[in-house]
# Entry
Amino acid sequence: MKKVITISREFGSGGHDIGMEVAKRLNIPFYDQEIVDKAVAESGFTKEFIEEHGEYSTLSSVLLGTSAPFDSYYYAEDPQDKIFKIQRRIIKKFAQEGPCVIVGRCSNYILEQADIDSFDVFIKADIEKRAENVADRVELKRDELIKFLQRRDHKRRVYYRFYTRRKWGDYHDYNMMLDSGMIGKDKCVDMIISAIGE
# Structure
């Protein structure tokens, strides 16, 4: 049975590609960049700002344990919180429209809280494999690239923790966890489709 599938992923693990192929094979909508585009239209923030603050914690989140920026006194609402609320509304709307694949942005938690049934997948991979996967997109030397990936993971971990009060990547939050570096992206796609009974 086709249903809403959420894909959470470590940076560089291929989660976007896996989700897109699952959606293609099931002939259902795929939402990743579309969430960013709609959030840009609704918020007035730039695409770059949404991409950086829509899944990753701000510096203040890490240091203060909150999502409020240091100069939040000047804001009626913290920009990151505003983005989260907008993306939450967009994700719920997409899911309510029917079967689809949604990537990241706490979508598994958001749909659970909204009582919308979803099949939640977490994609991981060894950091060396992830470095290989993004080497052509991120112009950094090997050691710098590894640190870059670790920072991205940390920011996602803090973001997820702040908005869900849960541990990012904890198997309790997902129906399936797959190592794309070990079994390959194609096998991940096959296993997800098989698991939901298509």
Residues 59-75 have pLDDT under 50 and may be disordered. The longest helix spans residues 142-164. DSSP finds ten helices and five strands in the chain.
